[in-house]
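Q: What does the assembly look like in three dimensions?
Context provided by user:
Components: two
Sequences:
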Amino acid sequence: MTADASRGGARTSTDPGAGRTGAEDGPAGVTSVDRQSNAPVADGGLAVAVAGPLGVSGIDRREASGRRSGGAGSAGPAGASAVSTRRRLADRRWFRIAGGALLPLGLLVAWQLASTSGAVPVSMLPSPEMVWTAGVDLAERGLLGLYVAISTQRVFIGFAVGAALGLVVGAVVGLSKLGDLLLSPTLGAIRAVPSLAWVPLLILWLKIGEESKVVLIAIGAFFPVYTVVAAALRHVDRQLLEAGRAFGLRGVRLLSVVQLPAAVPSVVSALRLALAQSWLFLVAAELIASSMGLGFLLVDSGNNGRIDRIFLAIILLAVLGKLSDAVVGLFERWAVRKWA
Amino acid sequence: MPATPTSTSAAALPVEFRGVGRAFPTASGDRPVLRGIDLVVEAGEILAILGPSGCGKSTLLRIAGGLDRPTSGWVTIAGSPVGDYDARSAIGFQEPRLLPWRTVAQNVALGLPRGTARAAGRAHVARLLELVGLAEFAEHRPREISGGMAQRTSLARALARSPHVLLLDEPFGALDALTRLRMQDLLLEIHAAEPTTVLLVTHDVDEALQLADRIVVLGTEPGPDGAASTDAAPGAGIRQTVVVPGTRPRDRGSAELAELRGRLLDGLGIDRHGAARGIQATSTIPAFPY
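A: Here is the predicted structure of the complete assembly.
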């Protein structure tokens, strides 16, 4: 579910107009506001740059910053007492976990009831037990572990390559006017190509091996990182930059002391988006040409009418996407606390 | 005195402005902001630049620090031209401009000249934090301290450079009245300990009187009817130079200063009784519409 939400967000954020206007508002806000509110402004700017439906990271960030400023003693004024007790409950770990598990458990129960009561035929909606059995069956044949492993490996290699390239190119475009001038129109056009359009070309060029899939995933991971990093570096608070220069920083030192740290929070949330995008592109790649992996499991089961395995693959994708997102989310939380 | 880093303090240097002008390009042609500024700041002097907002005070200061270049004329420090972001000067901005991800001590360390040995740098930063009274906040982040503390951190960062010329752009403008008075006293203490040349931009007449050896009032030439025409402003020049009598620290309530204060306010186009000059006389826009 998380992955789906993020994918929607990724699509929106790749729209150059939205990203740019949002980010341009940033510096003005920062200059007019005092140092104390720097963090919230940066958060706000990010939320805009990373765009609308991306519920996940947006909410997490705001909560994190809220907690921080609370620690600094600048909590809200009157009327806060009622709110703060409620928030304290919502902050408790068990409460959050239980709250988050409520809907999946409810869905599971509804699913079980719908499939066993006979209201929906099993050929349309297999029972949870059937899906579990299908999973155990695949696992016993050694296929489940293989599929999960190969898909995860493709995602992580593609993500690593794409995100690294995105960081480098984003830095070039964000930091140098010449780079921006030369590269951003072309990259904007390439970004506009729908992911599936690459598949036939990649298959012709790279055959149906690992390369074609990894490259497609790398393309998917590249653009969120490139877009956000370029915007973040371009809009580093001018006043801080000038202060850095006035104290003798330039070139690489200015980059490492002022520009990169200022961009860290947005870079991390870009990585999070890119990871979600990587899973999306993985399925696109595996659906069309593959002999193993979760996408292959989906298309193979579709051809054979194994609806239980389709459910299994979808659930696995949701769980894997959420798990990898949670890992990056932890990293993001740490980075925001350290750098924002 | 352990708190005074005399060993690392640099010699104060004189600053000279000659025919300095600055115009900013706009859609409707160049808009001159400064024009024909001739000024010599002696080594070790505290010079206050006073003027209404928008008259180019900050621009003049930025030119002195090499953050901006004049469109005409030149500026020298000790006879040699000011370079881009000149290393001989250090600037204290109107806003603290601290890096939010660094601690107070790390922010101050940013001001250390390049090539400072690690241990010596740490000791210098500790001394400066002591001097501005922030020793116990060294490990705090900028968002965890008050505005006055942030401004003191910014001042310490500028001092960490051991500047020959200290440029301060309304450094206390955003502070509350009491904190501002304390910061003024602190600046005088620092200047006594490290006698550097100080250019202080302010719009506060009392602050200028309290701190400066000399006050320069910037402003546009009055028009034929005594009021400046705001439309075709030819750029601000030096309207008035005042040597402040007596030695620091000055008594904030002395009669001599009160007289001078009145004259300065008059020069800024403010009537002593509170009315802007020229309002009763004519219906044109007064010189400095506050």
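Follow-up: The radius of gyration of chain B is 20 Å.
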